[in-house]
Structure formats: C-alpha cells, structure tokens
Amino acid sequence: MRPRAYPVLLSLVIAALGCDRAPARVEVGAEDARAAAQPRGEAPCVPAIADKIGVPFIRVCPRDAPFGGERAPGFWISTIPLGCSAGEHGTLACPPVTSLLQPPPELADFRAPSPKLAAVVNAYTAHKVCTMRFAGRLPTRAERARARAALGLATVVVTEPGAGQPMRVRELAEWVTAVSCAHPSDLGPECKEAPYPESSISAVPWGMLARCAARPVKASAFAPIDLGGECAGSRDGGAALAFPCVIRGPAYGSPGAAPSPFSGFELSCEPPIRDAEHAQPSAVDLAAFRCVLPEWV
C-alpha cells in the first residue's frame, strides 16, 4: 500500500529545510533565461550554478542524443542531496555524505561542498519537500542518469570498518521517478518511484561512516579507484584519516560526459564516531534525494 501521510516526519523535514517559507525566485539574468529556452540552432545553453533558498542548483544543458536517439531538454538539479539540520539526526536518518560534481570548464572555479548530513527519507516525503520548497519535483530516472553521466553527480559514503582495514567508497541511493511527477500532494502510480542507481546502497552502515570532503583535481599522485572501490587508508594519530587514492567519479569515461579539466577527486577525511547516535531506518524504503526545478524565466 502506498504511504499517504507522514505528518510528524514531513513536518520535521519541512521545518528543517525551510518549507514554511514561500518558494523564492532565483535572480537569474535575462540572458541566462533566454539561453535555457533557446531551440536548436540559436545561442547555446551555458552551464551555470545558481542558488535557491540556500541550495545550489546546476543547469544540465540540452545535449544531442546523450542517451537514446532523442534530443532531451535542459533542466536544473540540486548539486547536493537535500540535508538535515544540525539537531535533526535524532529523529531522521541523516548520514554524513560526500557530494561529487565534476564541473565543466565554464565552472572550473566551482568549490566542492563540505561534507554534510543528508536526509534519508521515504519517497513521499522527498516528493513533498521538492514540491513545497521549490515548486519542483524529484528527477526522472533519465534526468538523473544524464546528470550522473555528464557531470559526475553522485552522493557517496566512505566507510572505515576499523584500523588496518581498507576504506570503501559507495554510492548512496537517491529517489527518482519513471516520469515527470509534479503533482504537489501525491505520487501517482505512474511515477513508479525507485532508488537510483542500481549499484547504490540504501542500508546505511552507521558505525563505519567517515566524514570526508572531496576536492576535484586535474592530476594526482595517488592511485585511482572507481566508486565501489577500496583504498588502504591510515590514521595519523590525530583527527585526520589519510585517504591515499583519487576517486574517478561516474562521469569518468562516460560517452555523455561534458568536457572537464578535472580527472578525479581527492578526499580529506575524519574518522567515524563509533558511538554516534542516529535514527534507525524503519521498514519503509529510504533514500537520499535531490530536486529538479522548472525552467527559471
């Protein structure tokens, strides 16, 4: 049976994410707005990052046949998964995550976000946050695949099982829908919400989560690993946790990837807090989530 109401959980998420405020229109220049709406043959779409109610969004520009044979429209998607407030992790599942974004040359000065606590919730709550806070929606599977392949957009968790054991980088599941679902109060049966990507994890290994910041690099002396790979980390005797590897994000080697001056990501990490208290996932399926915005004009 499809969940219809989560009044306590939803009110907590709305309060923490600022949903009680009316959606604010981001000040995007007229030239940018025209570029986003330009048909084929006119001025090209220019990649950009803009802020809406404290959340950065990136423009994924139209590309000829990135997947399949049809020209897909451009869209805006949050560069980070929606997060929890500082005191909210006693009620919601809020694991520390690392956001990956391989920016195109036009955004080469983009600063990678700091590690944050991501809200891991059911699909209904995620949908309501996107519609109520941004007048947006969850991304479709096709949109999320484009953002992942073109810009390396991924939410990862770094686990350290214990001293002397290799660290592992895993992709955390995010909610997507089969089709565009913008109804403000419901996810219809046609939405077919599901975790994405298939290789991601949804069960959070709480006691092993390191808090890591990712820095995109053009070159690295460290050995490269892909998402899902392992790295022989080490302690320095203090708060730092060495991660002597460079992560190749999901855009690495992708035929749909945008040109980028960066080859991967280096991590700086803090060890897990073994006795940290977190909300335990319930029987309801949980995942992180991003939001997609309608065209800003």
Description:
It is built from 4 helices and 17 strands. It is of the alpha+beta class and 297 residues long. It has a domain of 193 residues.
Fold blueprint:
Elements: H1 7-17, H2 30-37, E1 49-52, E2 55-60, E3 75-78, E4 96-100, E5 116-117, H3 123-134, H4 141-151, E6 154-159, E7 167-171, E8 174-176, E9 194-196, E10 209-217, E11 223-226, E12 230-231, E13 234-235, E14 241-242, E15 245-248, E16 264-270, E17 292-293
Parallel strand pairs: 11-15
Antiparallel strand pairs: 1-2, 2-3, 3-17, 4-5, 4-6, 6-7, 6-10, 7-12, 8-9, 10-16, 13-14, 15-16
Could you list some keywords that capture this structure?
4 helices, disordered N terminus, 17 strands, alpha+beta, 9-stranded mixed β-sheet, 297 residues, 4-stranded antiparallel β-sheet, single chain
Distance between the termini: 39 Å
Q: Which class do the helix and strand fractions yield? A: alpha+beta
Strand content: 15-25%
User: Helical segment tally?
Assistant: 4
Tell me the radius of gyration: 19 Å
Summarize the main sheet: 9 strands, mixed
* H and E string: HHEEEEEHHEEEEEEEEEEEE
Helix content estimate: 10-25%
Contiguous runs where pLDDT drops below 50 for at least 5 residues: 1-16, 18-41
The number of distinct β-strands equals 17
Tell me the overall shape: globular
Mean pLDDT: 76
